[in-house]
Design a protein that fits this description.
Elements (H helix, E strand, L loop, with lengths): L1 H79 L4 H49 L9
Helix pairs in contact: 1-2
Length: about 140
């Protein structure tokens, strides 16, 4: 009788190991699924901000062009009358405005580039998680 119980005990232990392995796999799949869902939400938020970032780039580029034109005009006027203190002050202010507008424009372009890189990285992570869960085959994201 004790031999039969020992055999039954060993068999139950094997089932327990299998069941633990299955539970661990399910836990990992749930974590991957949660991460996938979180990444998809982040991606949606980032993609929704692309339009605003594009508008920011266009707006800042226009502002920089306007500031540069004003600076050029002030510099030309100052060149014609180099002793005028008011013109010198205006030219100096316009040069500072042009410099700030140029910096703002470069920052807007950089922000848009960073946003596009973030979107690409999230798409790669989503594709990897989907492949891991067997949702879709892995697709090379460029």
């Amino acid at each position: 009788m004790s031999i039969a119980l020992a055999g039954f005990s060993a068999q139950a232990q094997e089932v327990s190991k299998d069941s633990i392995k299955v539970l661990k796999q399910e836990k990992e799949d749930l974590a991957t699924s949660k991460r996938l869902n979180d990444n998809k939400l982040k991606l949606a938020d980032l993609e929704n901000t692309v339009k605003q970032k594009n508008e920011d780039v266009s707006s800042s580029a226009r502002d920089a062009e306007t500031a540069a034109a004003n600076n050029e005009e002030s510099a030309q006027k100052l060149n014609n009358n180099s002793q005028d203190k008011k013109l010198a002050k205006k030219a100096r202010k316009d040069a500072k405005k042009a410099e700030k507008a140029g910096k703002t424009s470069r920052n807007a372009v950089s922000d848009l580039d960073d946003l596009q890189k973030d979107i690409l990285e999230l798409k790669k992570k989503i594709a990897a998680d989907e492949a891991k869960l067997g949702i879709t085959p892995p697709v090379a994201v460029q």
